[in-house]
Design goal:
Layout lengths: L6 H4 L7 E8 L1 H4 L2 H13 L3 E6 L2 H10 L6 E2 L2 E2 L3 H25 L4 E4 L9 E3 L11 E3 L6 H9 L3 E4 L2 E3 L5 E3 L2 H12 L3 E9 L17 E2 L1 H9 L7 H13 L4 E6 L4 H4 L6 E3 L4
Parallel strand pairs: 1-2, 1-11, 2-8, 5-8, 11-13, 12-14
Antiparallel strand pairs: 3-4, 6-7, 9-10, 13-14
Helix pairs in contact: 4-5, 7-9
This protein binds adenosine-5'-diphosphate and N-acetyl-L-glutamyl 5-phosphate.
The site of N-acetyl-L-glutamyl 5-phosphate has 15 residues, from helix 4 and strand 4.
Length: 281
C-alpha cells in the first residue's frame, strides 16, 4: 500500500493534522460482554476523532457450528463458502455491529455502523484461487478507500464503526480480515489526520512468553520482529496482525500500538500502554 496523494485535500475545508484514533477489537473481547462494555466506555472517553473496527471470528465460528456449518481457517483466514458468507454477514454486519453501535449510543457517542459496501467506503476483490480457494474472501483494492468521504462523516459528528465485510462493486459482499481493514483505513486517513492505529485484544501486548502477562515487550522494530519470528516468540494470529501493523507504519501512520482492551483508558491518562511498533533505528 502506498501513501495516498493528499495535495488536493490540503486545499479543501477538511481538517488536516487533527488526531485520529483507529481502534480494532478482536473476537475474544467481543465475546465477553463485560470486557466489551469496559472497552466501549474507554473508547467513548478518548478525545479526538475515532473509528472503531471490529472482528468477531469467534462468534461467527460458534454461530456456524450452531447451524451445522463447519469452519475452516487457513493461515488465519476463513474459507468462506456461500453458507459461511451468509453467517459472517449476519454476525459481523448485523449482530455484532448493531450491538456495538447501540452500546456506544447509550454512552452518548453518535456511532454509525458500516460495512465496506455502505457509502462504497471499502472495495475489495475476491481473492484469486491459487493453491487454496478461499471462496468469498476479499482483498482490499489499493486506493479504493476515499478518506474524504469518511472524514466528512466524522466532521458531521458520527463515529464510524466498521465490520469485517467489504464489497466488490458488482453486488458481491466479501469477507475481509478486520486487522487488514483497520490498517488500510489508517493508511488512507493518515494523509488527513495524525493517525494512531491501535489493535486491542485480550493480552497486554506482544509478550515474550505468551503465558506470562508480565513479559510485555514495550517496543518492536521490523528488525526485532524478524528475530522474534525466528525464535517463535511470535506466532499464529499475531503474525498477520504485526504484518498489517508494520505496513501501516511504513505507509505514514504516526503510531501503531498493540495492547489490552481493558487498558485502553491508560492512553487517555498518558500512561504506558501495550507494545509500540517503530521503524528500524
Ligand atoms: N508473542 C505473542 N504475544 C501475544 N500474543 C501472541 C503472541 N504470539 C502469538 N500470539 C497469539 O496471537 C493472538 C492474537 O491474534 P488474533 O487471535 O488474530 O487476535 P484478535 O483477537 O485481535 O483477532 C493471541 O490471542 C495469542 O494467542
Ligand atoms: C477472511 C477472514 O478471515 N475474515 C475474518 C473476519 C473477522 C475477523 O477478522 O475477526 P477477528 O478479528 O475476531 O479475528 C473471519 O471471518 O474470521
Amino acid at each position: 500500500m502506498n501513501k495516498i496523494d493528499t495535495d488536493h485535500i490540503k486545499t479543501s475545508n477538511l481538517s488536516p493534522d487533527k488526531a485520529l484514533y483507529i481502534i480494532k477489537i478482536g473476537g475474544n473481547v467481543i465475546d465477553n460482554s463485560e470486557n466489551l462494555h469496559h472497552f466501549l466506555k474507554d473508547f467513548e472517553a478518548l478525545d479526538g476523532f475515532k473509528i472503531l473496527v471490529h472482528g468477531g471470528g469467534k462468534v461467527a465460528t460458534q454461530m456456524a457450528e450452531d447451524l451445522g456449518i463447519e469452519s475452516k481457517m487457513v493461515d488465519g483466514r476463513r474459507i468462506t463458502d456461500i453458507e459461511t458468507l451468509r453467517v459472517v454477514t449476519m454476525v459481523y454486519g448485523g449482530l455484532i455491529n448493531k450491538n456495538i453501535v447501540a452500546q456506544l449510543q447509550r454512552f452518548g457517542n453518535n456511532a454509525i455502523g458500516l460495512t465496506g459496501a455502505d457509502g462504497n467506503f471499502i472495495k475489495a476483490v475476491k481473492r484469486p484461487v491459487k493453491t487454496i480457494d478461499y471462496g468469498f474472501v476479499g482483498d482490499i483494492v489499493k486506493d479504493s478507500i476515499n478518506p474524504e468521504n469518511i472524514s466528512r462523516l466524522m466532521e458531521a459528528g458520527f463515529t464510524p464503526v466498521f465490520c469485517a465485510i467489504t464489497h466488490d462493486g458488482e453486488g458481491q459482499l466479501l469477507n475481509t480480515n478486520a486487522d487488514t481493514i483497520a490498517s488500510a483505513l489508517a493508511v488512507s486517513l493518515s494523509g488527513l489526520y495524525e493517525t494512531t492505529l491501535i489493535y486491542c485484544f485480550e493480552k497486554k501486548g506482544v509478550l515474550k512468553d505468551i503465558d506470562d502477562e508480565e513479559s510485555l515487550i514495550r517496543e518492536i522494530n521490523p528488525q526485532h520482529y524478524e528475530e522474534l519470528k525466528v525464535e517463535r516468540i511470535i506466532h499464529s494470529g499475531m503474525l498477520p496482525k504485526l504484518d498489517n501493523a508494520f505496513t501501516a507504519i511504513a505507509c505514514g501512520v504516526k503510531a501503531v500500538i498493540i495492547g489490552k482492551s481493558d487498558d485502553l483508558g491508560q492512553l487517555k491518562d498518558n500512561k504506558p500502554f501495550g507494545t509500540r511498533l517503530t521503524k528500524n533505528a
